[in-house]
Amino acid sequence: MLQLNLGNNALIFDRPALMGILNVTPDSFSDGGRYNQIDKALRHCKQMISDGADIIDIGGCSTRPNNTIAPENEEMKRVIPILKAIRKAFPEALISIDTFRKNVAEACIAEGADLINDISGGLFDKEMLPYIGQNRIPYVMMHCVGTPETIHQYTLGGDIHQTVLDFFKQQCEVLEAYGKQQIILDPGIGFGKSLEANYQLLGDLNRYRYNNLPILIGISRKSLINKVLHTTPETAENGTTVLNTIALLNGADILRVHDVKNAREAIELVGTFLRH
Asked: Of 59, 143, 155, 242, whose CB has the highest number of CB atoms within 10 Å?
């Protein structure tokens, strides 16, 4: 069960949580350019909250394949104004920042963000884990290989569960050296792994669940759907719902999605099924 301690408040989720994706970049693989203006971002955020999002995940630096990585100052310019606007408009919202840069994370936490979602698990910026650890900031740690530029050039296979578990153990121990932490694990489905490995990671989450920590699954509109169904990111919502359902049945604690309404319905139906 997911629990987040934010200041003096403890938030306990009695069912899987939903993280709604808010890309504020011009070049994301699925919805680049749609929400990078404040008014559009606010409307989309309002809709996601209405549809049942528990967390809004703001990202300002696309890491899609064959993409040029935005410099740090550009990421700041994209994220900070929209973060401020969302914090003002939705003061009770839980806000996550999708960044692998410590300076961006620190600036956003100062502006009211609640947690950091790092696709590199602390690999890309060596200052990230010390910052997170010293300040005990809720942190999504994604399994990753390579660099921002080479992350999609890998196709890891073999005993992928052990590879991911070893990574989590190593990186969590770095954080835990600073004391008790709030860590959420993300196996990094769709990042540097073979099609077979991606599906294996959906099959047995507990084989890489380190220390009984909650697990986030992010497969929304990704290539592991499109390669099988010959869909595109724009037409992959049905496939996304199918795989989210599989993830829930296998113990996922958080789903990171573009379409919050479909994911909320999957959570409700799977929860009803499991209760009976």
From this structure: 143
Closest among 81, 66, 99 to 36, alpha carbons compared = 81
Count of structural domains within the chain: 1
- Domain-embedded: residue 124: yes
Most confident of 24-28, 49-53, 154-158: 49-53
pLDDT tens for each residue of 80-116: 999 999 999 999 999 999 999 999 999 999 999 999 9
Specify if 7 maps to a domain.
no
Name the more confident of 13 and 143. 143
Per-residue pLDDT reduced to its tens digit, 6-43: 776 677 888 999 999 999 987 554 555 577 789 999 99
- AA identity, residue 62: S
The one catalytic residue among 101, 193, 221, 256: 256
Catalytic site residue from 222, 227, 261, 264: 222
Cα dihedral across residues 112, 118, 121, 125: positive or negative: negative
Return the DSSP state at 193: B
CA nearest neighbour of 128 among 72, 201, 80:
72
Per DSSP, the three-state class of 29 is coil
In whole angstroms, give the CA distance from residue 257 to residue 251.
Answer: 17
Task: Please give the pLDDT value at position 156.
Answer: 85
Question: Where in the sequence is the domain holding 200, given as residue range(s)?
Answer: 16-275
Entry pTM: 0.94
The whole-angstrom separation of Cα 229 and Cα 234 is 13
In a domain, 259, yes or no: yes
Whether 193 is catalytic is no
The neighbouring-strand residues paired with 116 are 97, 139
256 catalytic, yes or no?
yes
